[in-house]
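For reproducibility, we list the full input for the adenosine-5'-triphosphate complex.
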Amino acid sequence: MDPDEVIDLFPSHIRNQADLNLWEEANITQAELWVNKRQRQFHMSTVLTEGFVRELHRRMFNRTWRWSGTFRKSNKNIGVDWTQISVKLNDLLLNTIYQLDHSADAIDEIATRFHHQLVWIHAFPNGNGRHARLMTDCLLMTKDMKRFSWGANYASISTDLLRTKYIDALRKADRSDYSELLSFVRA
Ligand SMILES: Nc1ncnc2c1ncn2[C@@H]1O[C@H](COP(=O)(O)OP(=O)(O)OP(=O)(O)O)[C@@H](O)[C@H]1O
Ligand SMILES: [Mg+2]
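The corresponding predicted structure, in tokenized form, follows.
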């Protein structure tokens, strides 16, 4: 990560990875509560905007990283060139709005492609997976659709295996095969 990106807001009582995970989860829960409270007012024209994308990231990580809600300023092994983030994101948002208005494809399919393309852009230094999952759920809410389960209904599956399934499905989507990701999001 860029030196600027490391600056974080963890209080000093956080000593290990487990503490850190709890801290991050609590921050994300605040964003979830905000989403739940606001979801009836969610509309495509306000949710599918760069402003909302950044606000959601900020709300999920504002007690965690100083740079929450701001885009990457360096390249990673995944993601578009950092100078292209805003352009590519706005392309994706406009494209998705167009599809929701005009395409005959099922909303689940549009939302699944949206999720993959959003993590592929990788707009932020960290938190892209968690943010793009909640962002996709917000898209579904604008259409009064049930949120995705993101594999939560797999009985007695380990977190590691769930993660592997998710990443494998994304890798297939990288090769334009969305079948596995499409079933994972409602599994
Ligand atoms: N081959 C890939 N194609 C598309 N997206 C990918 C690929 N590999 C990983 N990703 C996405 O990148 C995310 C990891 O990026 P990042 O660390 O910024 O997010 P995070 O929310 O902190 O991650 P995590 O999901 O590990 O909590 C993964 O969760 C996944 O969504
Ligand atoms: Mg991460």
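The mean pLDDT is 95. The CA atoms of residues 35 and 138 lie 8 Å apart. Both points were considered when choosing residues for closer inspection.
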